[in-house]
Specification:
Two copies of one chain form a homodimer.
Chain A (H helix, E strand, L loop, with lengths): L31 H9 L1 E6 L4 E3 L7 E7 L2 E6 L5 E7 L4 E2 L10 E4 L3 E7 H10 L1 H27 L2 H19 L9 E3 L4 H8 L3 H13 L4 E3 L3 E3 L3 H6 L12
Antiparallel strand pairs in A: 1-8, 2-7, 3-6, 3-8, 4-5, 4-7, 9-11, 10-11
Helix pairs in contact in A: 2-3, 4-6, 5-6
The first copy, chain A, binds a DNA duplex (30 and 30 nucleotides) through helix 6.
DNA sequence: GAGCCACCTTGATACGGATCAAGCTGGCAG
DNA sequence: CTGCCAGCTTGATCCGTATCAAGGTGGCTC
């Protein structure tokens, strides 16, 4: 049996010291039966940067796990104003058992590889395998918490705080994928354009650019090229987010 | 066996014509075993307006369903800026299986009655009763969708659109609790103070007040007292939200 | 190497909502 | 009835971000 990275998030690897995300095969929680079931109904799809995965309202007959690349969920108002409402990084889950159409636009923001499960078989699996259902519930609850933290950012933070918060979130996710401590995540590539960052944060791309320049000018970050960020003092960045020092913004 | 309104949301009453929310006893989906299990571990708590249910970070040893009244989930930045991240109306669910502490401040915004289940027994029930786990997953997915719609409001709408959206959401929830069609929900009481509305929408209470006055001046709504809203033309209100005519904002 | 284009930066100005301030309203205690 | 106070309204002004505009940069194709 070939165990792949793509269905990892269906297990709670976070609490499993012997199971770094890229090597679930050694996880003591693995249940071979489940894996075999998942393996038997999965297939792959890949997308190019900018390519839509699905538009809001269109039928979506699979659920999927992100293997590599970045995808976004977004909503658009009549007049074109766009808000990103979800950011899918490797190991994130896409889709909803029990619903036939996509509620949001899903777009590949880079080269994107999805590991898909047809909805019918996946739902059957869910019904017959409580441990998978339970893991999916936990993942959904995590996403809900992330969405709520994001709401604080959108509703109450200044542009500067928004940028600092986004950089912190990306650094921490990057670090956690590589099993580093958060403070080690002090250099990383921005996976998003300025425009995508603006859509994430409810700003314009000009404001994003200005605030990044301001953080650079103030020595909070260094830029190498347009996309590579170096954070000399991670605590200084966190202090710019407006959160408590022990900030709970883990996404 | 005594069937109560409070654990109703653990069933999907929405798709069950014979099961209006207040009379689940006749629902064809009811599984007596589950009800008995839920009944056997539940108890009640009540709170006064303004009283905290739990502060973020404090231990929370129960999950609960709102029987009556309004509660809010909110987050506060160091300097006091507050954002509401969840609004709990009757039949909504509070708490998270598998976590021992509250992630957000929970506050009673009116007289509030909760139907509580101690976390331990509830989690055991969840493990042993897949249908309850599945229902909880669906509810969580609904909440996640609501949070994402809310993110669009916070990130991209003007103050006027925010107010119109909130009024629409409240009218529709009110209507759905009473099994009316959405357009009938054209008169209702605001369950929130101006300040709570501001915390919901990421505005100040002055701006909320001004925009409500503006909608009144423009004939979109009528006010009877400070809290009772009459909507003469529901489509006119929806047109103010900035959403597509067939707007997806069902919370 | 030349030219192009997506992406980004910076500047000038406009405007929506925050802030500060003053007063109104209605319900309740005494 | 009187006074009080939480909740609300309205006005004047300020500030942060949007908007409009111009130009820079780097990576790609030919």
């Amino acid at each position: 049996m070939n165990i792949r990275m793509d269905d990892l998030r269906l297990h709670d690897h976070r609490n499993c010291a012997s199971c770094p995300i890229r090597h679930r095969a050694v996880c003591s929680k693995c249940e071979p039966d489940e894996l075999e079931l998942l393996d038997s109904i999965k297939y792959y799809r890949s997308y190019d940067p900018g390519q839509p995965v699905v538009w809001a309202g269109d039928p979506l007959d699979f659920v999927a796990s992100v293997v590599s690349g970045i995808a976004t969920l977004s909503q658009t108002l009549e007049d074109g104003r766009t808000q990103m409402v979800g950011l899918l990084l490797p190991s994130d889950f896409l889709g909803r058992p029990g619903r036939a159409t996509a509620p949001y636009d899903v777009t590949a923001n880079s080269k994107l590889l999805l590991c898909c499960f047809r909805r019918g078989p996946f739902e059957r699996l869910l019904r017959e395998t409580p441990s998978i259902a339970q893991r999916l519930l936990e993942m959904t609850l995590d996403e809900l918490d992330a969405a709520r933290d994001w709401m604080l950012i959108l509703g109450r933070k200044t542009a500067r705080e928004k940028i600092a918060s986004l950089l912190t979130i990306i650094a921490q996710r990057e670090a956690s994928l590589q099993k580093l401590s958060p403070t080690d995540g002090s250099a990383f590539d921005l996976p998003l354009t300025r425009e995508a960052m603006a859509d994430y944060l409810g700003l314009t791309l000009e404001t994003v650019s200005r605030q990044i320049s301001a953080l650079k000018r103030d020595g909070i970050i260094r830029l190498e090229g347009k996309r590579h960020i170096v954070v000399p003092d991670f605590d200084a960045l966190i202090a710019e987010t407006g959160d408590d020092a022990d900030g709970g913004l883990l996404v």
